Amino acid sequence: MEATERARVRDSVRQKVTTQEETEVREVIASMARDLRAQLMGPISFVLEKVKKGESVNERSLNNIRRICDRVQGLNFLGDAKLDEALRELQGSLVGVTAQEVRTVDGVRAQVATAFSAIATEIKTLADADVESMAESLKLGRRRFRI
């Protein structure tokens, strides 16, 4: 095999390996972003259903959502700005709100239901969103292979 053919084969293999690695990394990033967003949905859906049905909401449920917001913000190494915004909205809807107010004050109950419903819709939308820009923001380096 002559030198130019070896160089062509080597370049072709490098390109295939690079493309495959980038695809795998993007899939992992997409999966992680979906998982982060999904961590919020369980507790939000739980409280939202209780509020809609007029059932009692306890302080532990609201505190759980607050803790999850803090944890998810800390895990958002992808810099997902839309997720950060949804978390801020969620936290803002809970500032100064107690479970007793959610149970007894119709205006607060309606406010929490509206906020949680909007945020749940936003998070569902985010869960299906393209994470290409997040992968790009990581500026994935190129590994060099010697063939």
What is the H/E order?
HHHHHH
Query: In percent, how much strand structure appears in the residues?
Result: under 5%
**Poorly predicted regions:** 143-147
The value of Rg in angstroms is 22 Å
Can you count the helices? 6
* Approximate shape: rod-shaped
User: Termini, distance in Å?
Assistant: 15 Å
DSSP, total strands: 0
pLDDT averaged residue by residue: 79
Q: Please bin the fraction of helical residues.
A: over 70%
Count structural domains. 1
What is the structure about, briefly put?
With 147 residues, this protein is an all-alpha fold.
Write the layout of secondary structure elements.
Elements: H1 3-53, H2 59-75, H3 81-94, H4 99-104, H5 106-127, H6 132-137
Question: What does this 3D model show about the protein?
Answer:
- There is one protein chain.
- This protein has 6 helices and no strands.
- It is mainly α and 147 residues long.
- It has one domain (3-137).
- The radius of gyration is 22 Å and the shape is rod-shaped.
